[in-house]
UniProtKB/TrEMBL annotation:
Transmembrane segments: 97-121, 141-163
Listed InterPro entries: SporV_AA, SporV_AA_N_sf
Keyword Nucleotide-binding annotated: no
Keyword DNA-binding: no
Record organism: Candidatus Scybalomonas excrementavium
Name of protein: Stage V sporulation protein AA
Annotated Stage V sporulation protein AA domain residues: 4-87
Pfam families: SporV_AA
Length: 208
């Protein structure tokens, strides 16, 4: 008996309103004909002009495969519940995209600067620098000192190292803290949607 191996991701975004099995995961079978038939299985259809979302149980996918290919065994190698998002295709507006990028950069820049300034004011960093300068030189500081400049340089270097970016280049292959947090948020959001759909009976399962 031939075996079809199915590996689906927890969440998939598609731009075609007709969703086939090949659109949500990887399929492998030693028989190329069976693999092709499984990939062409239609899962659902969304409205062409509206965003949509549907949750599928892996059992539903196995049921559809068995209907199309009754003499095969299906092995699930991926998730047990899958969220399919549909976004209608639209023409990319480069001007709007650049405007969004610039807006995010400005907000991040001024927001980070404001946060650093308020933090330094709370702990009175300038006073600490003045005291250290007086202890070392025996004179009162008159304006910015070498420690102030080194603090600024160290702060900039520390931010680049922490966020793993210098200009448009990454310092290492490790994911940045932003990427880690976004993946954690995505996983938590998917878990919430899956559990909510299951409790409301909105998940597409073998009984539906």
């Amino acid at each position: 008996m031939a075996v079809i191996y199915l590996k689906a991701e927890q969440s998939v975004c598609v731009t075609e309103h007709i969703v086939h099995l090949k659109d949500i995961g990887s399929i492998y079978c030693s028989d190329p004909e069976l693999a092709y038939q499984a990939k062409q299985i239609e899962l659902t259809r969304f409205s062409k002009m509206e965003h949509g979302r549907e949750v599928f149980s892996i059992l539903k996918l196995i049921e559809l495969i068995k209907k199309q290919c009754p003499d095969v065994e299906v092995e699930n190698m991926g998730e047990t519940d899958i969220i399919v998002y549909y976004k209608p295709p639209k023409k990319e507006n480069k001007a709007l995209l650049y405007a969004k990028v610039i807006s995010v950069c400005l907000i991040s820049f001024f927001g980070a600067g404001f946060s650093i300034m308020t933090y330094n004011t709370d702990v009175d960093t300038e006073k600490v620098f003045d005291m250290m300068y007086r202890l070392v030189t025996g004179q009162e500081a008159n304006g910015p000192t070498a420690m102030t400049f080194m603090y600024c340089i160290g702060l900039a270097v520390g931010v680049m190292i922490f966020f793993n970016h210098a200009a448009n280049k990454r310092l290492s292959d490790d994911p940045t803290p932003f990427q880690v947090q976004m993946r954690l948020y995505e996983r938590d959001a998917n878990d919430t949607l899956i559990k909510g759909a299951g409790r409301k009976g909105q998940e597409t399962d073998v009984d539906s």
